[in-house]
Specification:
The chain has 314 residues and is an alpha+beta fold. It has 11 helices and 13 strands.
């Protein structure tokens, strides 16, 4: 039986410098409060540029990563923690880096024979009409290295394409465009090698954007998702395979769309999903009988399992 003292002194990293800072602060505070309620010696740290000096000076035993986006979810933090010899929650360097890079994730899924919408890279001199001709409309245009739908636009007509590219390029030098799958949207929360109950999402917005994710009261969540057991199991297995193919582990989330023919299409993998009051992993866990504090405990338990390096990456 694991006791709270077995975790030692735990740093909860939140905030950071990415475009997802505000969401990360909310996630981190929720995680920090849960660990305190469970009796863990947890310490909240807003991760600035001096975060590694803070960690080194604090004599911490492990790290709960609640940093979303670049610098926390892309493998750079994970690599530094391994150098410091600090175990941490979630995926290791490789899984984190590949999941954060939407282009490489899609290339790997295609190579593994997994379904993901057809796509292209939009370079500054790209002939936009040719891209639209190849992929068709509607399209989703997105920065390759952002989360929380930041910088993403839906293009339904040709005249919207240039503005969509500019919106994405404001966040990233690598912009991708993919065929928009019109149909039901699902997410699969993953914990310790198991898929939790699927959630189906509905929003009156043009798509499930930042506002729909974090502040809108109009977003609807269905869990159970309304699938028959065999179909739900098939989708869960696809999510687990997609996660594993990218080298991910511990906990996370895989998002996908299902078209009118019932074909699922992988959209993205998240290795540090949100843990706010609007977040999907806590919602799925609750439907599986796992309350928030227990979910946070289980995620932290993953840091006790040695990863590829002695430091962690459970």
């Amino acid at each position: 039986m694991i006791q709270a003292r077995d975790f030692g002194k735990v740093a909860v990293l939140m905030g950071g410098l990415s475009a997802e800072r505000e969401v990360s602060l909310k996630s981190g505070q929720a995680v920090y409060n849960a660990l305190l309620r469970k009796g863990v010696d947890a310490h909240a740290i807003d991760a600035g540029r001096d975060v590694f000096q803070v960690l080194a000076a604090g004599n911490f035993d492990r790290v709960f990563i609640a940093l979303h986006g670049r610098g926390g979810e892309d493998g750079t933090l994970q690599g530094a923690l391994e150098t410091l010899g600090l175990p941490y929650t979630g995926s290791g360097v490789l899984g984190s880096a590949l999941s954060m890079d939407k282009l490489r994730a899609k290339l790997i899924w295609v190579g593994a024979g997994l379904p993901t919408p057809p796509f292209a890279v939009l370079k500054p001199n790209a002939k936009l009409d040719k891209v639209m001709e190849k992929l068709g409309l509607p399209l989703m245009v997105k920065p390759a290295h952002e989360g929380s739908s930041i910088g993403i636009s839906k293009v339904s007509e040709a005249g919207q394409m240039a503005a969509a590219w500019a919106a994405a390029a404001a966040y990233d030098s690598c912009v991708i465009v993919e065929r928009c799958i019109e149909g039901a949207e699902y997410t699969a929360a993953l914990l310790g090698g198991q898929a939790l109950p699927l959630i189906r999402l509905e929003t009156p917005n043009v798509f499930y954007d930042y506002e729909a994710k974090y502040s809108a009261d109009s977003t609807r969540y269905f869990c159970p998702a309304g699938l028959d057991p065999a179909q739900e199991q098939t989708f869960q297995n696809l999510a687990l395979r997609a996660f594993d193919t990218l080298g991910c582990s511990g906990w996370g989330r895989v998002d996908f769309m299902c078209d009118a023919q019932g074909q699922p299409w992988l959209i993205e993998s998240n290795t540090v999903p949100g843990m706010t009051d609007h977040s999907l992993v806590p919602m799925a866990a609750r439907h599986a009988g796992i309350e928030f504090d227990e979910l946070v405990w289980r995620i932290l338990e993953g840091s006790l399992t040695p990863g590829p390096a002695a430091a962690g990456g459970a």
